[in-house]
Amino acid sequence: MGYKITAKADLSPIDYFVEVEAPHVAKAWKPGQFVVFIVHEKGERVPMSVYKAENGRIGMFIRKLGKTSLQLYYEYSVGDELWSFVGPLGKPIKVKNYGNVVFASDAVCGQAENYATLKAMKEAGNYTISIQSFENKANVYPEEFLAKPVADEHYITTDDGSVGIKGNYLDVVKELIEKDRVDIIFAGGKLGTLAKLAELTRPYGIPTITTVRQIMVDGTGMCGSCRILYGNEIKFACRDGPMFDAHKVDWADVLKRAERFKEQEQLAKERYLE
Ligand code: FES
C-alpha cells in the first residue's frame, strides 16, 4: 500500500506544498519532529519538515531543488501514491509556556516549522511572534500558507524590500531583543543565517533553538552522515535533533559538512532535467 497524495499547490516559483495521507505518522507527530519519504521503489530517502499534521494527513513544504523534489513536482498528482512514508523521526521540542516565543525562518523547511511550532506554542498559552523572510515578492507564500493564523504578531521581510520589511529576520530579531520582547527564539532555514542568529542572541543569553539540517541517509542514527559537533559531544541531527541549542553547535563544521555532496546533487538534477 502506498501513501496517497491528497493535496498539492504552488507556494511560489520555487516552493510547493504537498499533503500525504499517513494516519499513523500524523497521529504520533509532535512539533520538532520530521518525516522521511521515498517517492518510488528506486527513489532516495528524503527527510522533510512537517507543516501540518491533521486529520490523518501530513502537509509539507518542498523546494524544487534536486532530482527527487522535481520529480515529485512534475510527475505526481493528487491521487497518486508515494512508495514509503516513515515517521515521526527525531526529538520533539519542549512545548510549554515560555512567555514571548519567536519563530524566525528564511527557507522552505523553516517556513513549515514556523507554522507548526507557533501553533503548538500558542495553544500552550504563549504570545507568539512569527518572522518569515523571503528573497522577493514573487517568493512570498500565499496568505493561507503563512504562519499568520498562529501568530499574535507576524512580520514578513524580503531581501529587496518589495514586500514587508527590507532585510532579513535578523534585523527584526535585533529590534525585538532591544525592546526586551524575546523570552525564547526558535528558527529554521538557511544554515548561514542560523549561525548568525546564534551569535546575535548569545551575548543576551536568550535561549535559541534552531534546526540543524545535515545530509541524512537512514534518518535513525545508524549511518553517521548527519553528525554534528555539539559542545564537547558528537550528536546526530536525525536522532538527537533536528532542533538544537544553537549556542552549543559548531556552526563552522556544520556549514562545511552541508556542502559535501553539492556537486553530485547538481549532476543528478541536470541529468533529470535533460
Ligand atoms: Fe544516518 Fe543521521 S541520517 S545517522
What would you report as the Rg, rounded to the nearest angstrom? Answer: 18 Å
Q: What name does the CATH topology of the largest domain carry?
A: Rossmann fold
> How big a fraction of the residues is strand?
25-35%
Task: Provide the number of structural domains.
Answer: 2
Number of strands: 17
Overall SS class: alpha/beta
Show unreliable segments. Answer: none
Order of helices and strands, N to C? EEHEEEEHEEEHEEEHEHEEEHEHH
Bound molecules: FE2/S2 (inorganic) cluster
* CATH homologous superfamily heading of the largest domain: Nucleotide-binding domain of ferredoxin-NADP reductase (FNR) module
- Biggest sheet details: 7 strands, mixed
Helix content: 25-40%
